[in-house]
Amino acid sequence: MENLVGRCFQGRCRGLHCLRGTDDNAARVQAVDAIVAMFSRKTPGFGCAAAYWIIACVLVLAGCDRKPATREPPPQSPEGQPVKRATAAPVYADVAEQSGLNFVHVLRSGSVDGAIANILDSDGAGGAVLDFDGDGLMDVYLVNSGEPQSLSGNPAGRGRRSNRLYRNLGNCRFEDVTEKAGVSGYGFGVTAAAADYDNDGDTDLFVVNFDGCILYENLGNGTFRDVTERAGITAKKTGISATFFDMDNDGYLDLFVANYLVFDPAVKPPPGSGVPYAGPLFYQAELNVLYRNNRDGTFKDVSEQAGILVPGHRAMSVAPLDFDLDGDTDLYVSNDGTPNLLFVNDGKGRFKEEGFLRGVAYNQFGAAEGSMAATVGDCNGDGLPDMFVTRFGVPSLYINGPGGVFEDRGAAAGVGKLTSGLTSWGGNFIDFDNDGVLDLFIANGDAHFMRGMRPLLLQNDGRGSFKDVSAIAGPLFSQPVNARGSGVVDLDNDGRLDIVLCKLGGPVALLHNRAQTKNHWLTLHLEGTRSNRDGFGALVKVHAGGQTLAAECRCPTTYVFQSDPRLHFGLGSNSKVERMEIRWPSGQTQVLTDVETDTILRVREPGESQRTTAAAGSQVKHFDSELGVADQRPQTIDHRP
Questions:
Q1: pLDDT at 393
Q2: Residues with Cβ < 8 Å from 453, sequence gap 6 or more?
Q3: What is the pLDDT of residue 514?
Q4: What is the DSSP string of 598-638?
């Protein structure tokens, strides 16, 4: 134990992450507890922040007297009753097969004696949820891997199972419309991102591949066309994640593509390592790419002038967030085996990397172990966006604090112990019981072999701690699953959040939320006019029953998956929202009062667009009023007991 604790402060713990995976996870959790206890004795109030890095840096950045960011329990209802939580029947049931969501991920490289063939296969694939036909129901696009000769080293000509687009028919029923829509894809697929990049009222689709990406333009009639070359998306890199965001608040969405590594099939693991492939640091790193939207359907690579070219990293994902609430979108890039990056936006589309200064470059050991992705949300109710980062080692729960400096409270929150012995990939903040407090879903799986690990559902007690409630979550939570990407979405518009879970070399799972709860909720579908049409970058505050909930409308990318872009608020026993404030990226603030709950509310930004969109003259149906409130009718498709 003493040796392990000592290693936590030896630079970046190179020996812990140069090969994927480790059997030391439980011991490292014990080390965290030892470190926390040690520093708690020496510096009261300092908490576990000292475990991040060298003590002096923490003293300068965070301050010895910094208080832990925790939250009081959710307030009682006006009737004096506490917020109710789901406790009875299993919360989730896997309904993928009966719903028609029959996607199966295929590993074209195969496996030998259960060993995963290479590092690219190990990363798996995911997808995105989007409303491609504008009917108010979220559809599902799932991506399959392939086997290009340039990446795998195997003979060319092997088949590839296509990506699939499933149209939501309501009542958790889906129809495969891939061929009709023209989005079967090609190449070695990884994930997808969806947004209306041309502001024409239809959600477009960007497919991330290991050998060049694909941009599909939505034509508004249920079909797409490949406009990759015409749009200027020309980089042929090992893409692994992408997100849309408005880097300069000009009303058009720009595109960040996170790239992984330069794969060389000749690279082999060291003799005696016990793993089937070499870890990420044995391969050459790839640079990320930032494309600026030219407002005419094309993009320009502005990576260098924007300041996002930081060499030596192998990205696993990118997450947009306005961590300092200054009105412009920043970017958090999770890296495999090197420090994570936080690109701070100056408001004009230029970025400065401040991951170390803000406390989010390393884990609580001061090490840069392989990070998968960040999920963003206000998990302690202070109005600031926090991050949960999945890792090959112990995950991090970064709590945002004064001055935009984060503190990793993963150990103090109990997340470290709960994930001991597991390799975490997908991670999602999710209020599964609508009590107004963000819980956690974690997708786990083995990095080297075709064997599973059980997923986790962790309930937030509202005071900064989590407990494992997988026992009530449903049968899948007790089964070994070799999971990768996961996304949160309300597929049947009933106000209960469902989960799409992607498995490595296996069928997708659709976890249907059947929580027995009377808690209320509100979902917002934002539509920008002067801002980008998706409303990405808008900050929303909801005031209900003495509680204030805050969330940012973002392109919600996590590990190889994009979740439901609509904003969902669990409200507990509060049946009405007294006041709601929306700060749009254009700078204007919209206020709504006495908003009904248990509905999906479409809110249109006040004012007419000042831009000339590609959709000029197109017939797009809007449901707006003088207040900018759009269709307030509940979009509930199926009321379940």
A1: 84
A2: 422, 423, 444, 445, 446, 480, 481, 482, 483
A3: 96
A4: SEEEEEEPSS---S--TTTT--------TTSB---S-----
